[in-house]
Design goal:
The protein is α/β, with parallel strands linked by helices. It has helices at 12-24, 37-46, 61-69, 83-94, 132-135, 145-157, 186-197, 215-230, 253-266, 280-287, 303-307, 317-333, and strands spanning 3-7, 29-34, 51-55, 73-76, 100-105, 126-127, 162-168, 171-173, 200-203, 209-214, 242-244, 247-252, 275-278, 300-301. The strands form 4 sheets. A 7-stranded parallel β-sheet has the order 3-2-1-4-5-7-11, sandwiched between helices. Strands 8-10-12 form a 3-stranded mixed β-sheet. Strands 6-14 form a two-stranded parallel ribbon. α7 packs across α9 (253-266).
Length: 344
């Protein structure tokens, strides 16, 4: 029986991936690290008892090390920058004497150019094949980069038995289908902050763009990598196993701001249609958001996944733009959004 250890099982990405794993591999023995008994009960109920749980968090390093030792496949979809837990995973994998797969979830924000328009590089696109050496040479000051570097040393520590892969999504959209959190980060965070403040913003002119991908297409890549591993088929791993997921045309954040504003005004969640052009410091002060993720350029080309058979089916431009309304609707129906005060 194949044993899978999941970290981040109640999250947006981790839950969706694990939901697919349970469908594709009904014979897997699945164990998940969860922070509370409430989440453990939720997973047990939602999976009809198929998911076993370990209570703990990312700082419970011995728990993580032991669970990793006992697993054939480890999927980390929790923090993409928590180094101590990754070091525990590396320690456990270094001593393995059976074939083991570790998939780590990073983020394409590692490629972000700058929040300073003088240092924008809007024409730059990164292929996870052609530009892999450049990607692997990014400085530690880039988001997620220290964690990526650590993960990429794991396979080298035990190359006869361990395979690693990093999945690095850009803006993920769509309603998740996991066990708890069903909304993504960038656009839902933007929506929540705009509703709270009462109007929208762009970082400077908003002429920055990110690639996008639907959550189902993200999960499909994890499943494909797992399938390759289970079937003992070759797939790029280690330093070459850095996988982007994206489709369609990168979206401009000023266009997203306009679409979000129109929707929130139409739904009477805000009354002020203005979109302020703010500096990164003003964005962080007024909206509480890290400006890098709305005010930089991140454009990815998923050549590596396509080389092993990944085919996005839900990530077109039309589906991306339609999803904004669907996500706002979901957030409103589930009480995640609240009408702003008229004084705003």
């Amino acid at each position: 029986m194949t044993r899978l250890f999941a970290i981040g099982a109640t999250g947006y990405v981790g839950g969706s991936v694990l939901s697919d794993i349970l469908k594709v591999y009904p014979d897997f023995e699945v164990t998940a690290l969860v922070r509370t008994q409430e989440k453990a009960d939720l997973l047990k109920t939602a999976s009809n008892g198929r998911i076993l749980t370990i209570l703990g968090d990312l700082d419970d390093l011995d728990l993580i090390e032991n669970a990793t030792k006992n697993a054939d496949i480890i999927i980390n979809a929790a923090s993409n920058s928590h180094l101590p837990s990754l070091q525990s995973i590396k320690k456990a994998l270094a001593s393995k004497k059976t074939s083991t797969l570790f998939i780590h979830t990073s983020g394409a924000g590692v490629l972000a150019d700058s929040v300073d328009p003088a240092h924008y590089n809007p024409s730059k696109e990164y292929s996870d094949v052609k530009d892999i050496d450049e990607i692997n040479s990014l400085p530690d000051t880039q988001p997620h980069r220290p964690a990526d570097k650590l993960v990429q040393t794991i396979q080298d520590s035990n190359p006869d038995y361990v395979k690693t892969a990093i999945v690095s999504p850009p803006t993920i959209f769509g309603i998740g289908y996991g066990f708890d959190n069903k909304i993504s980060a960038q656009i839902p965070y933007l929506v929540k902050s705009v509703v709270k403040v009462g109007h929208n913003f762009t970082v400077y002119e908003g002429n920055t763009a990110w690639s996008h991908v639907h959550i189902e297409d993200v999960a499909a890549l994890y499943i494909l990598i797992v399938q390759k591993f289970v079937a003992k088929e070759s797939f790029p791993s280690g330093y070459k196993g850095y996988y982007f997921v994206a489709d369609g045309t990168p979206h401009l954040w000023k266009d997203v701001a306009m679409a979000v504003t129109e929707l929130l005004v139409a739904r009477k969640l805000i009354s002020d249609p203005r979109i302020d052009k703010l500096s990164p410091e003003e964005v962080e002060k007024q909206f509480g958001l890290p400006a890098l993720f709305w005010g930089s350029n991140v454009k990815t080309i998923p050549d590596l996944g396509k080389s092993i058979g990944w085919k996005p089916t839900k990530s077109s431009d039309s589906e991306f733009w339609a999803s904004i309304d669907a996500e706002v609707d979901f957030m409103q129906k589930h009480g995640i959004l609240h009408r702003t005060l008229s004084s705003h």
